[in-house]
Amino acid sequence: DGGITQSPKYLFRKEGQNVTLSCEQNLNHDAMYWYRQDPGQGLRLIYYSQIVNDFQKGDIAEGYSVSREKKESFPLTVTSAQKNPTAFYLCASFGGAGYTFGSGTRLTVV
Amino acid sequence: QKEVEQDPGPLSVPEGAIVSLNCTYSNSAFQYFMWYRQYSRKGPELLMYTYSSGNKEDGRFTAQVDKSSKYISLFIRDSQPSDSATYLCAMEMGAQKLVFGQGTRLTINP
Q1: How far is A38 from A27, CA to CA, in rounded Å?
Q2: Is B98 in CB contact (< 8 Å) with chain A?
Q3: Beta carbons of B96 and A50 less than 8 Å apart
Q4: Of A36, A51, A91, B21, which is least surrounded by CB within 10 A?
């Protein structure tokens, strides 16, 4: 089955730590996205990549970093500079059939 | 002012009722309009996609777009408890970047 796999499903981070969220797709899509979802705020764009080895900041990129070394993979690192990282993180890709979302990673700072 | 405004609800209706969900937007450059359904702790799934003013029907769901008023709606007929979810409107102006509304939490009571 083609789709997007996000891991882990739940992640706990201590303050001051960097953590990396995984996103893998087997849809052969060029474009991939990371969104953050907070209660009552919908989805906000963190970073996006339209092609391998290239990516752009979204609306709330501060405190986050990404890489796109392979077409299938678009990992997101939440750095210690992100002051309020507790949220639900969604990865998506875009292709001929539109946007496909992963099942999300819930990150909690402890 | 946010580019896309959506009443966050929550909205609670009895089974079988007609549900109306709405979004307004301020940017006339938006060309594509989508409705996503998101169950708790899951990624959004595409329900309806349209790019022109007027109505588009798919089973119990009807998407309506009024570009002159910058207003879109999703109607659900014969609502079922399985329709209970958060509904997100989303819009795109090209460059494959989506802008989301805040999401409306809907509960259908048996």
Answers
A1: 27
A2: yes
A3: yes
A4: A51
User: For residue A110, what pLDDT band results from cuts at 50, 70 and 90?
Assistant: confident
Residue B33 tokens read as: 């309009």
Would you call B8 and A31 a contact, using CB atoms and an 8 Å cutoff?
no
SS3 label, residue A55: strand
Dist. CA A21–CA A69, nearest whole Å: 15
Q: What is the pLDDT of residues B14-48, one digit of tens each?
A: 999 999 999 999 999 999 999 999 998 899 999 99
Q: What residue of B is the nearest CA neighbor of A96? A: B96
Alpha carbon distance, N-terminus to C-terminus of chain B: 37
Judged by average pLDDT, the poorest of B9-18, B26-35, B92-101 is B92-101
8 Å CB contact of B43 and A103 = yes
B27 touches chain A (CB under 8 A): no
Cα first-last separation, chain A: 35
Burial class (CB in 10 A: 0-12, 13-18, 19+), B4: buried
The amino acid sitting at B31 is Q
Q: Does residue A49 register a pLDDT over 70?
A: yes
Q: Is the dihedral of CA A73, A57, A90, B101 positive or negative?
A: negative
The predicted pLDDT at position A1 comes to 59
What does the pLDDT look like over A3-14, one tens digit per residue?
Answer: 999 999 999 988
